[in-house]
Write a structure and sequence with these properties.
Ferritin, 0% strand, binds hydroxy diiron-OXO moiety, Ferritin_DPS_dom
């Protein structure tokens, strides 16, 4: 059974993951509006992954007999100065998410709640991958540059990172959901 402090933090994380999904969906829409179709596809797919992160937390809470609560959602920004700014904001956001996960892990460890601590290890590893991914995209943008045909090549590169058929099976439990 989860403590009320852990319930609160897990619910906050559920809402943060949903915000991440909204943010990336909105950014993907901005990219599509700017004819950056590869980035739009990549961000739309990433928004789906964030929803999977949210569902995984929700399932875990339900499995422990707790009630997951979806709060109201702040609207994400819709205007961006450039594609570089979009990915800078994503990298900054992911670093914030990592900080939140770290605080959640710290709470589970100090209570202690070893089941939740183990459950959260997936998010620790995931945040490492997320930061690595978006730092790599930013490095590519800086390497290629956005002048001339640069934007075209960046869009193509990022579009190729989008994989097909990544939709998650929502019927699986929190502990065995596909990564
Ligand atoms: Fe982007 O990892 Fe969840 O939020």
């Amino acid at each position: 059974m989860l403590s009320s402090a852990l319930c609160d933090r897990l619910n906050r994380q559920i809402n943060l993951e949903m915000y991440s999904a909204h943010l990336y969906m909105q950014m993907g829409s901005w990219c599509a509006y700017k004819s950056l179709d590869g980035c739009a596809r990549f961000l739309s797919q990433h928004a789906d992954e964030e929803m999977m992160h949210m569902r995984r937390l929700l399932t875990y809470m339900n499995e422990t007999g707790a009630l997951a609560i979806l709060g109201s959602m702040q609207a994400p920004p819709a205007e961006f100065q450039s594609l570089t700014q979009v990915f800078e904001k994503i990298y900054e956001h992911e670093r914030f998410v990592t900080q939140q996960i770290n605080e959640l892990v710290h709470l589970a460890n100090t209570e202690p709640d070893y089941s939740t601590l183990q459950f959260l290890q997936w998010y620790v590893a995931e945040q490492h991958q997320e930061e690595f991914l978006f730092k790599a995209i930013l490095d590519k943008i800086n390497l290629i540059g956005t002048e001339g045909q640069g934007l075209f090549f960046i869009d193509r590169e990022v579009g190729q990172m989008a994989t097909r058929g990544a939709s998650e099976d929502t019927t699986m439990t929190a502990s065995n959901q596909a990564e």
